[in-house]
Structure formats: structure tokens, C-alpha cells
Description:
This protein is α/β, with parallel strands linked by helices and 283 residues long. It is built from 14 helices and five strands. The chain has helices at 3-21, 32-41, 46-62, 64-67, 75-83, 114-132, 151-155, 159-172, 189-196, 202-206, 216-219, 238-251, 253-257, 276-281; strands at residues 84-88, 97-104, 139-145, 177-183, 208-210. A hairpin with an 8-residue loop joins strand 1 and strand 2 (97-104). It is globular and about 50 Å long. It comes from Glossina morsitans morsitans. Residues 143-239 form the CRAL-TRIO domain. One of its GO terms (molecular function) is phosphatidylinositol bisphosphate binding. This is CRAL-TRIO domain-containing protein.
Amino acid sequence: MSKESEAELLAKINELEEWYQMHPQMPRKIDKCILRRFIRVMDDDLEKAKRLLEVHYKIRNQFPDIFLERDPLDKGTEQICKLWDMIPLPGLTNDNCTVAFHRIRDSNTDKFNFRDGARCLVMMFDTRFICDGERISEGEISVIDMSGCTLGHVAKITWRDLRIIATATQDGLPAKIKSVHYLNCPPFMGKLMRVLKWFLKSEIIQSMHFYLSADETFYEHVPKDMMPFEYGGKAGKLCDLRELWQQRLKDQRSYLMDPEYWAIDNSKLTEGSPSTSSIINNN
């Protein structure tokens, strides 16, 4: 970014911060790097950034069991981290995108709780966004290894939680979803997609790719070097990457649990702005 462009962006960040402070319904605290993220994700459109901020926090506050009532050290998070890898991989793709790796690694469905997983996923996003600071990628790429996923896991996903996460990631996330890649797809993948299509926008569905294994077609989208050692890459061992990000969650515990960063004052909502119920019901 040129000095002129950076100066223009800083001016917009300051303007957005002033707007934010003039709206008492918003959470009391927000870091400038997060304001920068909202602006950049909306292609430097200040009005769209304001809209995204409002939607983002309204979704969070309508569903506190997923977005607010959380603790990186509680039993639910500890359990889900033993079952489910959700790991931001180091580096960026050639087109400046981040890659996150997901995998269920324990086939025991009795231990699986999707809501705990959704809560942990949100904490992972929040942790990465604050740790990234001013480094904002051009998009998010998700790699999901389905080899450990069974119909038993799918059966434990409630429509309510799936709808909330789908809405939050599509309409309230300060990041652009670039593509989603499913590796080692099971025979029931088609049935699963028929369910997911109820919750996903057409552009998200079109960004999905399916593979029986991590083949050369997959590596046309995700550089092989960015993948963990176990997948032929150079990003490091999954156990080490997992430990790194679990520690980062713990390091950000006070931030993640501080209501002044996340809670809105419902009595001071902007007149005419959409309620979270209308946001959810329209998706």
C-alpha cells in the first residue's frame, strides 16, 4: 500500500472510530486493528463497514451461548480441542489468502458437541484477528479433512446452531470467504450438501471444492508447502500447530472474555437498524 493510500485508510479508521464512539449501543472497547479489518474487508467503503459492524455485534449478542459465554479454559473447549483440529496455517497463498485447516480426529461421537465446536471456532477467529493486527489477507480459505467425520457426528449438529454459524460467517464475519475445500469426502457427502444448501448462499456453494484425496487439483488452490507435514507440506506437524493455537487462545483469554469488547446495550440500538432475529430469519 502506498503512503497516500495508507493515509486515506488511516483517515477512514479515525472516522469509523468516531462514529463507533458516538453509538452508545456498541461495545465499549474495540482495537483500531479491528476497525481497520472491517474497512478493508468492505473494500474501504466506510458505510458498508459501519453496517457490517452493526450486524456483527447484533448476531453475537442474540446468541450469547456461542459468541459471548466462552472460556478457553472451560471443559467444553478443552474437550473439543481434543477432538477437532481448527488450525490457522502459517503464511499466505500467492493471492494473499489465509488458510485454515479443520479435521475431526476422534471418531467417538459421544464426546462430540457441535455447539462447543462452534464456540471454539468463533474464539479462534477472534484470536487470529487480534493477533494478525494490521495484516489483513484478501480472503479466507478453509481446508476440511472429512476422513474422521461420520454420520454420527452430522446427526449431532442442530439446525439452530448450523443456521447461526452460517449466518455469522456469511453476513457478520470481517473476512471474505474465498473458497472451501473438502478432502477425503465420504459417501454421504452428497446428502450432507443437500442439508447445507438450505443455509448457504449460492456464491459460497460455488466456492466449494470436493476431493477424494489431497491431489494435484487441490494443490492448484492451496500451495502444498502451506499444508502440515502430514499432508506433504512444510507448515509443521499438526500436533505442534495445534499446541501453538491452543496456547494463543489461552493467551487471549482476558480479551475473549471481556464483555466490554463484545456486549452491546440493547436499550440503545440504533432506530431503524435490523434486529438480529430479522437477520437470522432472512438467511
